[in-house]
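Hey L., structure's done. Input below.
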Amino acid sequence: MSTNPLLRGLKNTHPGELLREDVLPALNRTKTEIASLLGISRQTLYDILDEKQPVTPGMALRLGKLCGNGPDLWINMQRAYDLRIAEKKLAKEIGKIPTLGEAI
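Output:
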């Protein structure tokens, strides 16, 4: 689990939630139009918005270009989400692994 007490208990935010709740409403375009502009199917967009599909590196490039903020935000958000989910799922197993020290 996170060692930062400020982050404990925070909801894991999938990039699809940010797209659904903040970005798409601000763009004032239909989901069909956004999917077309991204060069993806509507189903792919809906799967990301419904948090059923991750933001891949390719999708991060597309979203970063469309939104003008670059791919790093999107891929880093997905990475952080994936790590938090894995951390929760594997917490007991990871807790049993000793830390031997720095490798480098």
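The chain has six helices and no strands. The chain has a mean pLDDT of 91.

-- N.
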